[in-house]
Amino acid sequence: MSDSTNDLSDDLNAMLDDAKDNARKAGDKISQKAQEFSKEAKDFSRDAKKAAEDFSHEAEEVFSDGKNVAIIAHITIIGWIIAFIMNGKNKTEFGAFYIRQMLGLGLVGLILGWIPGINLLVGLVLIIAWLMSLMSALSGEMKPTFLFGKQFQEWFKSL
Fold it and tell me: pTM of the prediction?
């Protein structure tokens, strides 16, 4: 072989060696970055798990508190449904008391609200009963409404 062929062969070998070295360095760098990423992912996972556990414990405290259920039961029909579901998972007497009260007030309003002539008066009386019931729930007392509160407790005792 001639010198130019040897020089060309040496140049190609040098270029291949440089390419191998660069590929090895790149592989090492990728491996190092992957290890760093893996460590960060594990840290993030651990932190997320702890945050989820903390949230779970706080949610259990809120759901187990009958006062929260009682207050939520006073917030429209959707609130009543949410309170009913919450109380079903972790039943408290306080929450159930106000779920029954609000169901009774809602049914009275639904039935008597359709009667012409008295519907305005019924609405006003129901708003007053609702406010008094909400005030009792906020203060932590189980006071039946002045209308049919005791009957609501008897009629809906299965709730």
Answer: 0.58
